[in-house]
Amino acid sequence: MQIDIRTDSVKPVRQTFANIARRLGADKPATRYQEAMYDLQPEANFHYRPLWQPEYELYDKRRTAVVMADWYALKDPRQFYYGTWVNTRARQQESMEKNLEFLEQRALLAALPEPTKELLATTLVVLRHTEWAANMNNAYVTAYGYGSAITEATMFHTMDRLALAQYLTRIGLLIGGKPAVAAARDAWLQDAAWQPVRHAVEDLMVCQDWFELFVAQNLVLDGLVYPLFYQKLDAQLALEHGPACALATDFMRVWHAETARWVDAVVKAAVQESPANAATISRFAFAWLDRFEPALAQVAQRLFGPDGGDVLAAVAAPLEKRLSGLGLSREGAAS
Prior knowledge:
Elements: H1 18-24, H2 32-37, H3 82-106, H4 114-121, H5 127-144, H6 148-190, H7 195-204, H8 210-241, H9 244-248, H10 250-273, H11 275-295, H12 297-304, H13 308-325
GO molecular function: oxidoreductase activity, acting on paired donors, with incorporation or reduction of molecular oxygen, NAD(P)H as one donor, and incorporation of one atom of oxygen
Protein name: Aromatic/alkene monooxygenase hydroxylase subunit beta
Keywords: Monooxygenase, Oxidoreductase
């Protein structure tokens, strides 16, 4: 008996779901990201208004001063949906685990001079507390933001921030065990150098406008903290003690570069929507920049000594240029 194996094709009845076809056209296949993102936001048939804010619906576009004709314009250029996000982070976690294992087996962080370990415990490891705040802030955006294009990305972001806090805790443990992590907590709560930052971060955590919170946390504060700690400090420590610290924070640098693409795309889309949005978001961004930059001054001085002010200015200047590139400008400044 002879068996002929042939391939055949079956023409699909439709290329995608109806809600996606209404956006893209009936005959155009959608990507997994588009299918997992478009039009998932509940818009009608809410039975009750929230008891704590009866002036709003449960999901309400008026919870921010930013106005969009289509909230799904705030797309993620990384096209993260659950599958791609999990796969990407799994690969990065595997690489980070190898780095930490390498450092632990050779005791590279534990072998640093005591003053350097104390400096890292009371500066770098303290960022575990700002990462927890970032987790809470992005959870707020996820809860009260509008449109699954932004809220599903911020949900992934909340988990990223928890991972970053955990990595910083592990770095603290590699530096000096539980006492180093406790020293970081004490520094966050009591060290005079950290109190302006803590005050600003706590004020940020009660910000009501979710888009302002997104801009302040993910664009402005991250735009200052990540270059300051994971570029400038890493470079200084590499000159003095080799690449051990840079190896421990490699994920932070890669993650921030990747995440900045998404943050910039969201802000740029909102700014281009209307001049009113551009003015509102500019007010958000520069008000928080003027709050966070002075707040970080004492921490920068702790890290870089007399050069702290210059290093912080060298971090703030590219951030201002980045804001300008997104179409943001200071009130009264020539655009």
